[in-house]
Amino acid sequence: QKEVEQDPGPLSVPEGAIVSLNCTYSNSAFQYFMWYRQYSRKGPELLMYTYSSGNKEDGRFTAQVDKSSKYISLFIRDSQPSDSATYLCAAKAAGNKLTFGGGTRVLVKP
Amino acid sequence: GAGVSQSPSNKVTEKGKDVELRCDPISGHTALYWYRQSLGQGLEFLIYFQGNSAPDKSGLPSDRFSAERTGGSVSTLTIQRTQQEDSAVYLCASSLASLAGGSEQYFGPGTRLTVT
After folding, report:
1. Which chain B residues are closer than 8 Å to A98 by Cβ?
2. Which of A21, A30, A109, B109 yields a CA-CA distance of 20 to 30 A from B84?
3. Could you tell me if A42 lies within 8 Å of chain B, comparing CB atoms?
4. Which residues, 6+ apart, have CB-to-CB distance to A50 below 8 Å?
5. Interatomic CA distance for residues B77 and B69, integer angstroms
């Protein structure tokens, strides 16, 4: 079993809908949680970065971390076709190695 | 400002040949990471450099893989005697130094390696 699990999708939503993405993890030592967006043939782009449990909001993006259930989420409000990409969750402990989920492919249809 | 840059963007090589991949981190970032992204395996950590400390090589898949970082800036990942299973996108990331490991990592565009 991988340390960070993520549904590969694809997740297809109409434009304007809320996109809901989530990951589960197994390593209790993970303290830092990230969401990256990756367009085809591009490097991952950091979207959200959170420490420990709680919510973080940045524009249309909201990240949630629930350490008690080892569950992390990303919500995208008012989704746009330009949000179509693969979304990767990642986690790390006090060290610097990131452990990634497999990524969820999202398609926002106009 | 300038982000992480990598070269070449694409590399096709014959099985058994050696390849070198280059990474230029963001100016001022003292930590540098190499990851590999392949179908079926996702994104995997390879190696991490932090300042003058000994690198964390725990993710290197075999002794055919090595990396160095000269002058605390540019890094080169070398794969010797390439195999077809080495075909993947090799991604470099950099971050500010953080003893607690809490710094954000920023990725380059990657080098797509194809071994024929």
Report:
1. 33, 35, 43, 45, 93, 105
2. B109
3. yes
4. A32, A33, A34, A56, A63, A65
5. 9
Q: How confident is the model at residue B100 (pLDDT cuts 50, 70, 90)?
A: low
CA distances B91 to A12, A21, A38, B46, B73, Å, are: 27, 24, 12, 10, 16
User: Rounded distance, CA B9 to CA B26, Å?
Assistant: 17
Identify which of B50, B102, B108 has the shortest CB distance to residue A51: B102
B110/A96 Cβ within 8 A: no
Numbers of helices and strands, H then E, in chain A = 0, 11
B72 lies within 8 A of chain A by CB: no
Provide the token pair at A59: 């524009």
Residue B61 to residue A1: CA distance in whole angstroms: 19
